[in-house]
Amino acid sequence: MYKNLVVSYFRPVAILLLLGGLCLSCSKESGPVADGKSATTAGDDQIASQGAYEITAKLLEIPGELPDDPLYNYAFVFKYEIVNVIRGELDSKIVYIGHYKPLEPRDTVADVSSGEVGGNLKEFRAGDIHHMALEVPIDDYFMGGIVNRYFEENTGPIYWAVWTNRAAD
Amino acid sequence: MKFGKIAFVIGYSIGAMALARPGLAADTPQQAELRSEVAAKGWIAYSARSKNGSWDLFVSRPDGTSRRVLTDTPDFEEAAPRWSLDGRQLLYRRIAKGTEINHDLWGFQGQLIIANADGSDPVIMGDDQQLPWASWSPDATQLICLNRKGIDIVDIATKNVIRSMPRKGIYQQLFWSADGKWLTGTGNIAGKSWKVVRMNAETGELNPVDAGQSCTPDWCSDSKRVIYSSRPPEQKTNKGYGWTQLWVADGDGQNGSLVYGEEGVHIYGGAMSPDDHYVLFTKCTEDGGGAEKTGGPMFIMRFNDTPAITGESAEMRSIHPNTKDGPAIEFGTGWEPCWTYAEILQGR
After folding, report:
1. What pTM did the predictor assign?
2. ipTM for the predicted complex
3. How far A123 CA sits from the closest chain B CA (Å)?
4. Residue B49 and which of A7, A127, B179, B226 are 20 to 30 A apart at CA?
């Protein structure tokens, strides 16, 4: 059970300060993640107000070529391994999450089809850890094409990525 | 030359002059024969740009004559007309002036209007974006609507939702078969998107109609076959993107076959005449059907003259070597045409 494993001490409060051209990182209260790296980045505070679930999770793979067709808006389902559950209850270590048009950076991807989605993630790469705000089921939040290459493997819910940041290196 | 042929040639020549349509090529004899054949077969409604630039609703005879505007409203964009099966009523969407009509989202745009078949007495059925993707029940007493939460069947008289069901991945263009037993729409199924699907209206059971990338389905009047646009994946032309073609298949996904294709244009707006004898479609050089601009040229063919491929279309012809290539007639420029055999303008 990945129920609020670190909710009591995981606080997305990373703040970057620019002073005289120097970038200083304030101390963080983030909990450790699987690879020992920090789980939060600047802008993570926005995630706290989005979606019913907040997690950090590792993108396990890119399941084949991503559709590159600007005419057709779609969501693409990725497979993640949960690192931390910050808000909400998730019963599985593996979750399947639909991202809107994953070839585009999260901060510019939102349009009339997607509704409000965003984040600072620029690119989906296998092995990266993402800090996400989620909703479920995807059909309640996105009404469009969904490419789900895990259709036969996953009979559980598909989550909808509302906000996606790359966890800090 | 026999008298019949002489009479036809004379008639064709007179007809060609009488039907001279600015910007359109003269008909071949085969096209002229088809144009004459459909001339009195009811009316076709469609969306098109008015002279003032806004979208309005128009009707014309199937041969392109007697064109007239139904909604002369420069302060609104009207689009997506659809007659009830009995041809007595017309529904469409009235959208705020200047709004770009989105070819994938138009069912969510603007207000739903129900009017008499000739466009008179329009009634606003709901607020902006309400009753999304509304289309007629077979008896025109109910609407079927598609929203994120599911499919709603709405009683027109009371506007009450009388039944709801899961949408099961359908996200666009939901239409009810004439026998009331089936729905068709565009949706996700078996992990794949952009699939024309059929849903049992009673049980909600879903099945794919087409194996390729497909959308914009509509029912044939027999309630058994679905006509739709499809872009088969085997195409290498158009930089590997291919061209969208018009297809028909049984509702259970069997017997899928090409209706019309042409390399260089994408085919949308597929719809059948009320007796399934003729097929309507539009051509557009850009994929999507042209809603964001001015639509495209609209055509009619005899269904018995299909499958048809126009132009060189070398790759398409290599895949479909046995086409009939019957005549198609252009009858105007617009978007989302629909056909009724009712005499909608009686009394006007």
Report:
1. 0.85
2. 0.83
3. 22
4. B226
